[in-house]
Automatic annotation (TrEMBL):
<dbReference type="InterPro" id="IPR036565">
    <property type="entry name" value="Mur-like_cat_sf"/>
</dbReference>
<dbReference type="Pfam" id="PF08245">
    <property type="entry name" value="Mur_ligase_M"/>
</dbReference>
<comment type="function">
    <text>Involved in cell wall formation. Catalyzes the final step in the synthesis of UDP-N-acetylmuramoyl-pentapeptide, the precursor of murein.</text>
</comment>
<dbReference type="GO" id="GO:0008360">
    <property type="term" value="P:regulation of cell shape"/>
</dbReference>
<keyword id="KW-0067">ATP-binding</keyword>
<dbReference type="InterPro" id="IPR000713">
    <property type="entry name" value="Mur_ligase_N"/>
</dbReference>
<dbReference type="InterPro" id="IPR035911">
    <property type="entry name" value="MurE/MurF_N"/>
</dbReference>
<dbReference type="Pfam" id="PF01225">
    <property type="entry name" value="Mur_ligase"/>
</dbReference>
<dbReference type="InterPro" id="IPR013221">
    <property type="entry name" value="Mur_ligase_cen"/>
</dbReference>
<feature type="binding site">
    <location>
        <begin position="108"/>
        <end position="114"/>
    </location>
    <ligand>
        <name>ATP</name>
    </ligand>
</feature>
<dbReference type="InterPro" id="IPR036615">
    <property type="entry name" value="Mur_ligase_C_dom_sf"/>
</dbReference>
<dbReference type="GO" id="GO:0047480">
    <property type="term" value="F:UDP-N-acetylmuramoyl-tripeptide-D-alanyl-D-alanine ligase activity"/>
</dbReference>
<dbReference type="InterPro" id="IPR051046">
    <property type="entry name" value="MurCDEF_CellWall_CoF430Synth"/>
</dbReference>
<dbReference type="GO" id="GO:0005524">
    <property type="term" value="F:ATP binding"/>
</dbReference>
<keyword id="KW-0547">Nucleotide-binding</keyword>
<keyword id="KW-0436">Ligase</keyword>
<keyword id="KW-0132">Cell division</keyword>
Length: 480
């Protein structure tokens, strides 16, 4: 069954079709376009109209455009609209209207994408599940997620993010979730907000999009929880809280981090359960509990949700762990690499450092002879006028007491570098490329290495350079 026919898309967008066509998917990028996709010519860094001819050559079913681009035949399959982004929103709105799916929306300063993937794992065994790709959570990502949703979807998961005030509520109204979850409120995007309370109010505006009788899933452990609760009450939502503190409806009573997994005991109202995720970090267990509450509010089976969560591990760049075997002709041994180089703010960095602190280096393997816990940290971006102080304050994180060496990347991380004690202070460089070029000098067999930073800091270059030093250990992946 086609995702969109020409007639359906024209009806949804008010556009004008030049030919008849059917599309099996929706794409905004010719690099990942599949034959049969409707290509949406958005204007971003470049105008998507420049790629329409290429999209059609690659087998696009049609292109959503404002005009026929140069080099495109007069009889090409085009859906012509006044505004491409507005038309994509209209497609998303129509896709949402035609489905009977139970819809969840997720936002938060930290953990949106990982929670979205946890919830997907909890639901996909229980019905046809559709979820946002990657971290598609902005003004084009949310309508694109909805426009790609098949009509027979049973569960849908929409991730909603923001950079500035006023962005979340319109996207939530577009998604019309039955359940909305806020993972955590923490310092992030402070360039656009006066305070953490302002961030909380923006995150809480997700509840404005809830369907009548909807459910708000809120983290009950936060200083800003009252703001979230008040917004949920104003929206007329049923409120379910999760966390570690007494008084939460869903409460973790014990968390144990093991090599390759995190397990926890929890109480769901009066029911005791055991919860597991296949990665290390207490923060993952907390968000998994929120996802379990969300799945239950959607009407899913709780036992099947727990089994799905037990199989979940984070996507690349968001805390994935791998073992690399190094061999320089003298010393042979493995390092453990924690790749968390996609995003960073003070809360997520503190959580990542806790994971590193709990890791177990191995001695008697390399040139040094003693395994180390090493952090390679890139700038945390969009933190506003307090950015320098927030970076320096990382030196006081309790987990830092268990980190042997810290290398810093970027002008903001220089503040942390200056705040570190001499014994823990590694290299500081302006650019990630400078540190990547020295990758062989940064690590030694037996080390556990965390790489963490905002995407714009480009510390993923250091991850790539470290990977090139050795080869992955398949045995370690199976054991994990």
């Amino acid at each position: 069954m086609a995702l969109w026919t020409a007639a359906e898309a024209a009806r949804a967008t008010g556009g004008d079709n030049r030919t008849d066509w059917t599309a099996d998917g929706v794409s905004i990028d010719t690099r990942t376009l599949a034959p049969g996709d409707l290509f949406v010519a958005l204007k971003a860094a470049r105008d998507g109209h420049e790629f329409v001819a290429q999209a059609l050559e690659k087998g696009a079913a049609a292109a959503l455009v404002t005009h026929r681009p140069e080099g495109v035949a007069a009889d090409a399959p085009l859906l012509v609209v006044p505004d491409v982004l507005a038309a994509l929103e209209a497609l998303g709105r129509a896709a949402r209207a035609r489905t009977n799916a139970r819809v969840a929306a997720i936002t938060g300063s930290v953990g949106k994408t990982s929670s979205k993937e946890m919830l997907r794992a909890a639901l996909e065994r229980q019905g046809r599940t559709h979820a946002a790709e990657a971290s598609y959570n902005n003004h084009w990502g949310v309508p694109l997620t909805l426009a790609r949703m098949p009509a027979d979807t049973e569960y849908a998961i929409v991730e909603i993010g923001m950079n500035h005030p006023g962005e979340i509520a319109p996207l939530a109204r577009l998604a019309r979730p039955h359940v909305a979850m806020v993972t955590i409120v923490a310092p992030a995007h402070l360039e656009a907000f006066d305070s953490i309370e302002g961030i909380a109010r923006e995150k809480a505006s997700i509840f404005e999009g809830l369907e009548p009788g909807g459910t708000a899933i809120i983290n009950g452990d936060l200083p800003t929880t009252p703001i979230l609760r008040a917004a949920a009450e104003a929206a007329g939502a049923e409120i379910v809280s999760f966390g570690t503190q007494a008084g939460n409806h869903h409460r973790l009573t014990d968390i144990k981090v093991h090599e390759g997994c995190t397990v926890a005991s929890a109480r769901l109202w009066r029911t005791e359960v055991h919860l597991k995720v296949a990665t290390e970090g207490a923060h993952f267990a907390v968000n998994a509990l929120g996802c379990l509450a969300t799945a239950a509010a959607l009407g899913a089976d709780r036992s099947h949700a727990l089994m799905g969560l037990a199989c979940w591990a984070p996507p690349p760049g968001r805390g994935t762990r791998e073992t690399l075997v190094l061999d320089d002709g003298v010393a042979v041994g493995a390092i453990e690499l924690i790749d968390d180089a996609f995003n960073a703010n003070p809360a997520s960095l503190a959580a990542a450092l806790e994971v590193l602190a709990a890791a177990r280096p191995r001695d008697d393997l390399g040139h040094i002879g003693k395994g180390r816990r090493i952090a390679i940290l890139g700038d945390m971006l969009e933190l506003g006028p307090e950015a320098a102080g927030l970076h320096a304050a990382v030196a006081d994180e309790p987990a830092m007491a268990h980190v042997d060496l810290v290398h810093c990347v970027g002008p903001l991380m220089r503040e942390l570098h200056r705040a570190l004690p001499d014994g823990r202070r590694g290299r500081w460089v302006e650019n990630a490329e400078d540190l990547a070029a020295k990758a062989a000098r940064l690590v030694d067999p037996g080390d556990v290495v965390l790489v963490k930073g905002s995407k714009g800091s480009r510390v993923s270059r250091v991850v790539d350079a470290i990977r090139k030093l050795g080869h992955r250990s398949e045995m370690s992946e199976q054991e994990a």
